[in-house]
Structure formats: C-alpha cells, structure tokens
C-alpha cells in the first residue's frame, strides 16, 4: 500500500515523473493498482469537497440566522440531526432567538404601558434626544402648546413656539443642569410650571425631558383671592372711616348740639349695619368654602316662606310694598332649611331694597316631574342685559351709588349662587330696566345628604 501511495505521490511530482512513467510502462501488474488508487483518491477528494461545501453552507446558514436575530427578525428555528457536528450550536442559536423574542415581547408590552400611562398623565411631557429632536410627547403637551407635538424626529426649535420654554430647553442642553420656571404659553394663554430635566442614559448618551404642570386655575384662584382681600379691605374701610370720622367729630364738641348728635348717631348706626351685613356675607362665603355637611329635611314651602316674610314686615310697610304669595298649599320639598332660608332672605331683601315705593312682589313655587322651583318677581329698577351675567360675581354692583345708598355689599347674590350650587340647584335671572326682575332657583326633588 505504501508503494501505491509512493507511486501516486511520485506521479504528481516533477522530480519523479519520468521514473514513475517508466515503472508504470514497464510493470503491467502495478498499473491497475495505481489506477485504482487514483480513482479512490478522486472519490475521497470529491467526498471531502462535498462535505466542505455542506459545512460551508451550514456555517452560512448559522451566520445568517444570527444576523436575523440581531436585526430582530423572527425566522424559523434551525433543525439539524443530533449527529450533526453543528447540532449543539444550532440549538444554542435557537435558544438565543427564543430568549430575544421573549425579551422583545416584554419590552413592547412595557413600552405600550408606558406610552398609555403618559397619555393619561395630566402634565405635559416632551422627551428630546441628544440631537435636540423630539423622541416622544403626550396629549397633554399638545393641549398645553395648542398644537400637535407628537412629531417624532423633528427638531424641537421648529415645534416649541414659546420663547421662555425654548430658552429653558436650550440652557439644559448647554449646561446639563435641570431648569425650572413658571411661564405662560403664548398660543393657549396657559400658565404652566415648567421643569426641564437632564436625563443621562449612558456615558455618551442623554435625554432632555420637559414637564409642564398646568397652574392656570391656581393662578386664577390666587388672583381672585388677592382681589377678594383688596375688595374686602376697601368695603370695610368705607363704613369704618365714616364711623370713626363722625365719632371723632362728636368727641370734639359736636355732641353738645342735640340735633347734630342725633343726626350723626343715625349715620353711625346705618354704617354699623352695613359693616355687620358685610361681615355676615363674608362669614357666609367662608362657611360655603369649608364644604359643610348638608342637613336635608322635608318642609312645607308655603309655610316656610310665610314665616320668613314676617321678618320683613317693617321694611314692606315702610315702602308700602305688596307681596303676592302664589305657592300652593301642601307644597312639601326636601332641602337644607338653613341654606334655603339664606337664599330666600337675600332674594326677598333685594326685591324690597331695589323696588319702588308702592311696588309689588310675586313669590311663586311649584313641584314638577323631576324638580321644583321658586321664583321671586318684583317691580323694581331692573337690571341691564349686559350686566345680568355679572351680578353673581363677588363685590359686583350694578349701580355703585344706588347700591351704597341702599346698603349693598356686592356679596349677596354671589353668596346666593354658592348656596344654590351647594344644593345641586341653579339660579337664573330675567330682568328689564324700569320694569323689574325675576330670580328663579331650581332644585332636584331629591338632594343627597352629602359633602358639597
């Protein structure tokens, strides 16, 4: 066999070519053996070539499979025979693919939950990548900015059109420090508390997140509180100044004149009544704002109003005003007695205070299918149409001189509206200047005894 191999090797070598040829030609017994060896070598070479190509194809297949897994694609699993030398490697790649698919599904689920959570947030969220491009934004941000902000891949400078916010974002990119400021959005006229946060992701990557809290209502409440304090101070100052001035004049000698003393004391008394009324209205507003518990009881509406009218008898007789009570007998309603009494007292008082001498007042009420109502109509001065919506504002007066002359504080109707809303009702006014006004309050048949 060694001779055959030596012969085959010698056959292909240049040095021994002629010697091998001589042997082959000279020895006829060796020739078949050499030819057979050559044939066998050819077969072995062919088999090795086929195996090499098969292994190369399998390696390409395994490599392509790994590339697909890296790209996030989901090709089918590789199926090899257990005897295949690449069987274990194929199993490992299949396992990596399964694990990658599970991780991807978990990531997608978490991402959807994250995006859903962002959409339900009441604060505006805008996330920018380190290239200053929009990565994501929620609906609240679009509402605050007055335009669609979920434009992924766009430069923020082209979408954020409020200078103060753009300046905060730019400063965060430059300094890598968080920024905070109260700003006003030009497009929507919203006041927001803006936080721009630097978020490092890795040593080379970072995000910038803008968080906008809508504080428009808080600012409005703050403004109303300041206005309220200013108005209260002004309203308190007027009667206090008058009382102080007249008492000082009396102490300086005017009290020796009986006529002057009586006149000044009457003025002081009237101013003290205004002061008392103002304090009572302010306390009423404070009680409403503290959200008291409702005390719902059933009462006879006609009898209840009849008792209230007796307390106004001196004022009615002084201006000779006639009251027409048109509420049917046996009209029973469920309501908070104290709050309803305050509403009726104020409306009746206004119908007397702003009525003419020899005027009239009609008080009507009725239970309907789903609610009940109470209306008070008078023949008074009336209210201009453009002022009818404002009369329920705190400290608003239709005619300042007339209101001051009649002792109005500008709080009465605002208190009435607060009490009506506390009872789940609504109040409406219809009026014509020189003819009179009609105030109507409507309440549901059943009012739950609950916190306001």
TrEMBL record:
Enzyme class of the recorded protein, top EC level: transferase
Domain Histidine kinase: 231-447
Keywords recorded for this protein, A-Z: ATP-binding, Cell membrane, Kinase, Membrane, Nucleotide-binding, Phosphoprotein, Transferase, Transmembrane, Transmembrane helix, Two-component regulatory system
Transmembrane segments annotated in the record for this chain: 31-50
Subcellular localization: Cell membrane
Matches recorded under InterPro entries: BphY/WalK/GraS-like, HATPase_C_sf, HATPase_dom, His_kinase_dom, HisK_dim/P_dom, HisK_dim/P_sf, PAS-like_dom_sf, PAS_fold
GO MF term list: ATP binding; phosphoprotein phosphatase activity; phosphorelay sensor kinase activity
Example GO BP: regulation of DNA-templated transcription
EC number annotated for this UniProt entry: 2.7.13.3
Name used for this protein in its record: histidine kinase
